[in-house]
Amino acid sequence: MEVDGNSQSHIVSGDRRPDALGYFNVLSDEIVCSILNLLSPRDVARLACASSVMYILCNEEPLWMNLCLNKENRELEYKGSWKRTTLHGLQVLNKCDDPCKKPLQFDGFNSLFLYKRFYRCYTRLDGFAFDQGNVERKTDLSLEEFLQQYDAQKPVLVSGLADTWLAKKTWTPEQLLIKYEDTSFRISQRSANKVAMKLKDYVSYIQEQHDEDPLYIFDDKFGEVAPDLLKDYSVPHLFPDDYFDVLDSDQRPPFRWLIIGPERSGASWHVDPALTSAWNTLLCGRKRWALYPPGRVPLGVTVHVNDEDGDVDIETPSSLQWWLDFYPLLADEDKPIECTQLPGETIYVPTGWWHCVLNLETTIAVTQNYVNSKNFEFVCLDMAPGYKHKGVCRAGLLALEEQGKLDVEDNLSTMELARKQKKIKIDEHMNDSNCEIAKNGSDLEFSYDIDFLKMFLDKNRDHYNSLWSTSNCIGQRELRDWLWKLWIGKPGLRDLIWKGACIALNTSKWSKCMEELCSFHNISMPADEEKFPVGTGSNPVYLVGDNVVKIFVEDGLQTSIHALGTELEFYSIMQSTIDDNIQDTEYPFGIWSKKLFEYKKAGMSLEELVRSGGHANIWPYIITKRCKGKIFAELRDVLSGEEVSNLASFLGKQLHDLHVLPVTTLDDLSYLHMEKKLEMGHEAHEKCTMDNIIKDINLPAASKVFFTILNQKKKDVSCRLTKWGYPIPSTLIEKVNEYLPNDFVELQSLFKNENGKLEVHNCCSWVHTDIMDDNIHLEQMKESGNGREISWRPSYIYDFSNMSVGDPLLDLIPIHLDIFRGDVQLLKKLLESYKLPFGKRSSSDNGCKVRHISYLTMCYCIIHEENILGAIFGMSKELRTANSWEEVEETVWGYLNEYFSF
């Protein structure tokens, strides 16, 4: 029922909830509000008309705040209320905004949940009495004293570190507005979408808002949008090392943030990413900090660790809600370590420590996370595959089942930990160099010691065969690249780097395997700089003297055998094209055996794929001659435009030679046990009648396997993209099944044979599938005449373990996105030397819509098992606001439609 303002006086006072909510009355207000958060703004507006209580619930500002922030990534402009801001974003504000209409009021309805939320929205913190706390305060702290007493041990609050900073005088809201009023900064909030606001709009927001968990600027890219801000401060002398600095700026994980927040805003309970340590310097306002030692989960916080990939999710109340609702419940001995941070003070947060921050007034701060010798092994541990160790690092022994605790108890007696010196103890007043950790209801002592925590690594998982946690701060390729650069660039730290790499990469296991191979083949043992696997690929590769030793381990033993067999078959075919006297050799684990194995895997669930990885002590391997020179990944930043253009032409010629190689035909599909033919869906795109035509198509066996694998990958694409999430726009994920074809056969070149039946050209050829910056080799030429001492020319493409049989377009995807980084001119240069046709897709003769080459390429990107879309939307911020897949397709791959082969 809809109730207007004049009718309320005729309503008898009483509990109107049962009649107003009907069957929803059995649900608490909190649950009803949670359900409303799942609806669209338009549906919430309609539901507000259903009854008086629904009107109240559907007009709550926190609800409209969530509805607004859950929209697409965009620049936000606050309009005085979140409902008005949402309607303005939907461009319907003028249609429904009536400034003369009075808000409706009803009696007979009370809600403690809404009252508490209302109180949090309007509470003021200037009257709260916060003492100085029990975190140690230091002035003129020396580096030696910091390293001995605090580094990776306990928090400390240091004054004087920012005395010489320009930021200490200029970082106020008023002064920052003068220079940066139109600069957009990233906003932190609990939505997966990324929101930005111009500084002038944000300052206006913090003056108007009454949110229980206000938005605050938490921008890790502030140095890019406002580079002058980086000149206003410097890293304090207490934190000289950051091992992530060996990575290029576009490779390293986020590490520094500008933080601006109003009263009541703050960071809820968390442990910093990758178990890094952090320093935070306050320039304006006051912050209240609460901290717990590692493994001590705060009251009201729940830690979830996915047992498939180790992804960590933390459920926690907002910072303000925790201080108001949970802090008063704590006994004195259970209260956190706390302090009030004042302008000019720097707080140090050690690795693994839980912390929560509440802004007592408008604050401005800068913070950085870093990796040094004290926390390096912890960072490697956090990125290692598996899940149990991640739970223990954050939740202590609470993360273990009872049986697991008993196993720990049995192991503790035999561990050589020097526990009296290494274990962390609790001291209520933090007077000594160690700190107290509660036992969390267990009789066991929890030790935040790397040797202790390594006990919980899953010995049956290794780095190369396990799912990678999406919560890791860097990807698998980036981790390998980081550790390799540390190994080469910091030789004095190799003992430490080796320990960390053994945790994250199982380096000791593969090094031992490699040494056995060298001994068996009478190859010289590796020198110190050769002990570490090179490159960023998914298989351990070692450079030993003039040899390359590659151990096939990716995705388990079965896949590795097929990878080796395919690579050997490919080498054989290349050699046979050169020497006619070479006899064909059968490879039982060659390319078609690999494709049939991929067909089986394409139909497996995620759990089955994890189990199929297996665990073995024997792995296939190959030893080849080492090429002199460097990979493109090492030379990208030093090559001239001409050299990169020459590389593009070289790649086109290489792809031409690759794609014209003969492929052994596949005739026998008997053991595939395919129970039903390829069929189109019930609804065809644009009234296409392919479902009637498909029965008459003569599909080659090879094409049948290829199309079946594509269609299998298409089935769960929406779930896969949703799991990957940002930066893939959620609105496009919702439209993905509508964009993709019913069946990939639709997109191939169909023609009528002499009998009048439709056939499909066999689109399958050899494809590399993985031509990226670490698989292209360049060699040094003589001195060039342009003033540079050396110049480089491309010489080889290598790493053929991922060879496949499929559409040649598949090779353009990694080249264009990884090598060319979307540069259309380089793609054009490649195609000029490629000179092969891609074929026409879906001619209008079969009654189906004509599809461009760009469409098929975009479809391959979408269904790819790797997060290709993450690379596309990460490379182009503009595409994140695209309204359709067609818009993305045209931007990234549109040039392919202009390509005509010579």
TrEMBL record:
GO CC annotations on file: cytoplasm; nucleus
UniProt keyword Metal-binding, yes or no: yes
Compartments it resides in: Nucleus
Domain annotation JmjC: ranges: 224-387
Gene Ontology MF, one: metal ion binding
Pfam hit, one: Cupin_8
Record's keyword terms, sorted: Iron, Metal-binding, Nucleus, Oxidoreductase
SMART domains, per database record: JmjC
Record carries keyword Nucleus: yes
Required co-factors: Fe(2+)
Stated family: Belongs to the JARID1 histone demethylase family.
Full protein name: JmjC domain-containing protein
The species this protein was found in: Deinandra increscens subsp. villosa
